[in-house]
Amino acid sequence: MLNQISPRPAAGDFCRACSAKTCGFCGAFDRDTLAEFSSHAHRVHFRRDAEIAGQGEASEQIGVIASGLVRIVNVTESGDEFILQVLHRGQLVGAPLQAVSEFSYEAATDTTICWVPRGAWEAFLQDRPLHFQAYVATMASQMQDLQRGVVRLRGRDTAQRVAFWLLEQAPNAHGGDRARIRIALSRRDLASLLDMTAETLCRALHRLHKRHVLRLVSPDLVEIDDLAKLRRAAKCQEEAVSAALAQTDTPTPRTQWNATAADRLNGTKPVEMPKRPAARRPGTKAAPDRAGVRSA
C-alpha cells in the first residue's frame, strides 16, 4: 500500500494549520520555533494498518504524530504480534536514541506523520534548551502512558481492564458525569492492547452492558451514564473508599466493633484496650448490671 507524501509547503504553513501544535512535542513551541521545525520536516500520510517503521530497521528519521493513532508492536521470534502501546497526536514515532528500531510502528487509524531526518533532529534539539526540554517531556509522557498500561492489566479481570481503558478515554469527566466514548481502535487492536482475544473483548463489553455500566450504541460508540459506576467496575481504589465511607452513616453501638471505613476496606480490626474496673468501697454491694445479674 502506497503512502501519500505531501509536497513541502512554505515554512510554518502546515504547522499553523496543524492541531498537534497545541499538544505534545510541538505544544511547547512559539510561532518562530514551529516555523523552524517545519523547515526541516515533511509530512507523510499513512492509511490504517500501514507499516510506518519496521522492527529491526535502521531509524533514520524521527516523526511527530500530526493526526491519527500509531500502535507500537512487538513481533516475537515465533511470529506472534503484541501491541505494547498506542501513541496519540503530538507524540513521537521512532527511536531518537537508537540507530535501529527495537519495535514496529504501524498506523492504527489513518495517520499523518511529520518526519525530520535524524541529523536535522539532533541539530534542532541542540539548538536551544527549550527544544531538548520539549523532547524530554514528551518522552516522559509516553513512558508514563506505558506504565499506566501495565497498571491497567495488573490484578484486573477482562471486564475490569476494559472499564479501566474506557476511563482513560474520558480523563476530564468526574463523579456521576455522562460520557460518550468513540472507540477509534479496531476490536483486534484493542483486544491485543488489553491482553485478550477479540472474542473475550466482546464478551467483556456485553458483560458491562448487562450490568448497566455502559450502553453499546454501535460497535465503535459507547455511552456511560455514571462514570463513578464505571470506576467501581474498573476496580479503582478511590471508588472503593467512597463506597466504604457510605456505609458509615448508621452509628455503631459501643459494645460492637466500631470500625472505620478504611478498616472495613482493608479487613482489619482496631485493637480494643481492656477497661479498668471501677473500685468498690469495703462493705458495699456491687450494683446490678443491665441484665439484672449481680457481679461476683
Describe the structure.
Residues 25-94 form the Cyclic nucleotide-binding domain. GO terms for molecular function: DNA binding; DNA-binding transcription factor activity. The chain has helices at 13-16, 31-40, 118-127, 129-153, 158-168, 187-193, 198-210, 227-233, 237-246, 261-266; strands spanning 4-5, 42-46, 51-53, 61-67, 70-75, 81-87, 92-93, 104-107, 111-117, 179-182, 215-218, 221-224. Helix content is 35%, strand content 19%. The protein has 296 residues and is of the alpha+beta class. The N and C termini lie far apart (94 Å). The longest helix has 25 residues, at 129-153. It has a 5-stranded antiparallel sheet with strand order 1-2-9-4-7. Strands 3-8-5-6 form a 4-stranded antiparallel sheet.
Supply the key terms.
alpha+beta; 296 residues; 12 strands; Transcriptional regulator protein, Fnr/CRP family; four-stranded antiparallel beta sheet; 2 domains; Jelly Rolls; DNA-binding transcription factor activity; 10 helices; transcription; five-stranded antiparallel beta sheet; single chain; Arc Repressor Mutant, subunit A
List the helices and strands and how they pair.
Blueprint lengths: L3 E2 L7 H4 L14 H10 L1 E5 L4 E3 L7 E7 L2 E6 L5 E7 L4 E2 L10 E4 L3 E7 H10 L1 H25 L4 H11 L10 E4 L4 H7 L4 H13 L4 E4 L2 E4 L2 H7 L3 H10 L14 H6 L30
Antiparallel strand pairs: 1-2, 2-9, 3-8, 4-7, 4-9, 5-6, 5-8, 10-12, 11-12
